[in-house]
Design a protein that fits this description.
The protein is α/β, with parallel strands linked by helices. It has a single domain, classed as Response regulator (Rossmann fold), CATH 3.40.50.2300. It starts with 8 loop residues before the first strand and ends with a helix. The relative contact order is 0.18.
Length: about 120
């Protein structure tokens, strides 16, 4: 897994299959960096500000909501897309409070991910 920051998109998810899916969906067209925890994301975000971040909510350690709050407290301009299998209503309301750009449900739809990415980056 690449921990150095390469560019426009950061994906944070503890599921290697999801990270592999993002690499397959976006890796040929965009610079994508992937990490498997909120703590790894904080390390990168202290130094870099990606244009777009795909973020899982349920992760061990620092979860997605904790990372979202950390980013919000620092007024980071990164567009955040929540990617989760958790029930939408409760988490979506909390995420929107922190200015989330979009909220996607797993399993991921290739066309939806590509559309969200294109709109967020252009």
């Amino acid at each position: 897994m690449n921990r150095s920051f390469e560019g426009a998109i950061l994906v944070v998810d503890d599921d290697q299959g999801i990270l592999d899916s993002f690499d397959a969906m976006l890796g040929d067209d965009y610079p994508v960096t992937m990490v498997s925890s909120g703590n790894q994301a904080v390390e990168l975000l202290r130094e870099h500000s990606p244009q777009l971040l795909f973020l899982d909510i349920k992760m061990p350690g620092m979860n997605g909501m904790d990372l979202l709050k950390w980013m919000h407290d620092r007024a980071m301009a990164t567009k955040v897309v929540i990617v989760t299998a958790l029930p939408q209503d409760d988490y979506e309301q909390m995420a929107r409070k922190f200015g989330v750009y979009r909220y996607l449900r797993k399993p991921l739809d290739l066309d939806e991910v590509e559309d969200v990415t294109r709109r967020a980056l252009h």
